[in-house]
Write a structure and sequence with these properties.
Number of strands: 9
Mean pLDDT: 88
Low-confidence stretches: 1-12, 14-19
Shape: elongated
Helix content: 25-40%
Distance between the termini: 45 Å
Length: 289
């Protein structure tokens, strides 16, 4: 695995936009702030709230919440990975606010926080990296106070546009096999990136005891333009630390020659056109009564 994806903080800073141009990276970073603002808007923050940012990463939500609460509340920036907590602390330190935010290394499914101790939980692209989403959502319910809220943003990757939906079957001699393989990859229940959708998330929230569950489509990051020039970058990308590359996922079902031939055929297929790939995302909010 590439050195830049051995830790979460490096992945966040260097790898999550792999294959994107500098202009696209700037646009995506701008959209990250739009996502932050929407998550915090939907969290309905109140003065003196205790807010927990689960999977804080580099602190996008935690710092945004700190600015909104203006000291009349408490922000806890938590992450399971020490490198992210340390990176987040360094950022806070550079602004002289390291003593005004609580930094906590803890697992999302076992926070060790007391029952009913938090008013708001916010997350951004966190559940997508957790295998047992039901356990994690139950933990969120446990630590939320009555009247507490959760506000999240998640990618629903098993609804991404599939390659077999974009290509001409006549140009791929093993099209049916490729289709079967792609469906197997998308439906892999042991892959945290793919083992859920809006319906299962809603069911998990309802089973945990949440009310006023609201899941709506998100526009930012919903599409990318895909051309022959980014095929290699796409297949060599890692979508989560500890996960195989996209190419390695195909290699579970196809020989290396078959995968390489598929990649080269895709380049030919997209050589004179740009296709749009849908990457569905959703905003999620719910309340504990």
């Amino acid at each position: 695995m590439s050195e830049v994806v051995t830790t979460w903080s490096k992945w966040l800073n260097n790898s999550r936009f792999a294959g994107s141009s500098e202009e696209e990276k700037q646009q995506m970073n701008s959209l990250l702030f739009e996502i932050r603002d929407t998550i915090l808007d939907r969290a309905n923050l109140k003065l003196n709230d205790v807010l927990l940012d689960v999977g804080t990463g580099t602190g996008l939500l935690a710092f945004g919440a700190y600015e909104r609460l203006k000291g009349a509340g408490k922000v806890i920036a938590s992450d399971a990975f020490l490198d992210c907590v340390e990176e987040c602390y360094k950022i806070a330190e550079s602004y002289g606010i390291e003593n005004e935010i609580i930094f906590l290394q803890t697992d999302a499914a076992d926070t060790k926080l007391p029952d009913s101790s938090v008013d708001v939980i916010v997350t951004r692209s966190v559940l997508v990296h957790i295998l047992d989403k039901h356990k994690t959502i139950n933990e969120f319910f446990r630590i939320l106070k009555h009247g507490g809220r959760i506000s999240s943003y998640e990618a629903v990757m098993n609804k991404n546009t599939k390659f077999y939906e974009l290509i001409n079957p006549d140009n791929f001699s093993n099209y049916e096999k490729l289709k079967e393989v792609e469906d197997k990859i998308i439906s892999n229940e042991s892959d945290p990136l793919l083992n859920f959708n809006e319906s299962t998330l809603k069911e998990n929230l309802k089973n945990a005891g949440f009310n006023n569950i609201d899941i709506i489509p998100a526009e930012p990051f919903s599409k990318i333009d895909f051309s022959k020039d980014i095929v290699d970058d796409w297949f060599n990308s890692v979508l989560s630390v500890g996960q195989p590359t996209i190419k390695e996922k195909y290699l579970r079902y196809l020989s290396e020659n078959e995968v390489n031939e598929f990649i080269e055929n895709l380049k030919t297929e997209f050589s004179e056109k740009i296709v749009t790939i849908n990457l569905p995302k959703v905003y999620i909010s719910a309340e504990k009564y």
